[in-house]
Q: What sequence folds into this?
């Protein structure tokens, strides 16, 4: 139990520093999303290890922080870590809007500039799809909205990470 608590007590702020290549040949750390509505997170990299918790929503962003054979060690927005079988993860990029805040809304802008028109305001925990990130801004979309968010307001993308075009 002490080991599990130690594994779960980590920073929720992702850092791309120290990127290496994992067993998959892809960079570690990196962000991915959950492919299924039900994803068991285990305390170790096998089906014999106990389930620590279960995600119940597909599309949520998680950060891969380690790899072992077909297993990926992931970290969620709260900093909790555990192991997931690789087929339950997708390379589709998604993000949560300010999950660390309780009430502040985030302005969605028409263009990637802080003085651009506000087209909507997104609540914390809104799950969004990322189509592009450049210059500190990410183009995001979801049901009934499309626009640009300040990259620092998202969990699912690294600061200044470039995505897409």
A:
């Amino acid at each position: 139990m002490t080991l599990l608590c130690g594994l779960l007590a980590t920073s929720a702020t992702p850092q791309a520093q120290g990127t290496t290549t994992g067993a998959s040949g892809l960079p570690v750390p990196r962000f991915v999303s959950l492919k299924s509505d039900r994803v068991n997170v285990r305390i170790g990299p096998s089906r014999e290890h106990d389930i620590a918790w279960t995600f119940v929503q597909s599309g949520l962003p998680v950060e891969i922080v380690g790899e072992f054979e077909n297993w990926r060690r992931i970290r969620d927005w709260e900093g909790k870590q555990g192991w997931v079988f690789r087929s339950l993860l997708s390379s589709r990029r998604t993000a949560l809007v300010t999950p660390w805040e309780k009430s502040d809304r985030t302005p969605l802008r028409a263009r990637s500039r802080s003085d651009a028109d506000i087209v909507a305001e997104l609540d914390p925990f809104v799950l969004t799809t990322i189509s592009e990130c450049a210059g500190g801004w990410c183009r995001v979309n979801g049901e009934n909205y499309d626009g640009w968010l300040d990259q620092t307001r998202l969990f699912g993308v690294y600061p200044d990470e470039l995505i897409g075009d």
About this structure: DSSP finds one helix and 16 strands in the chain. The longest strand covers residues 61-68.
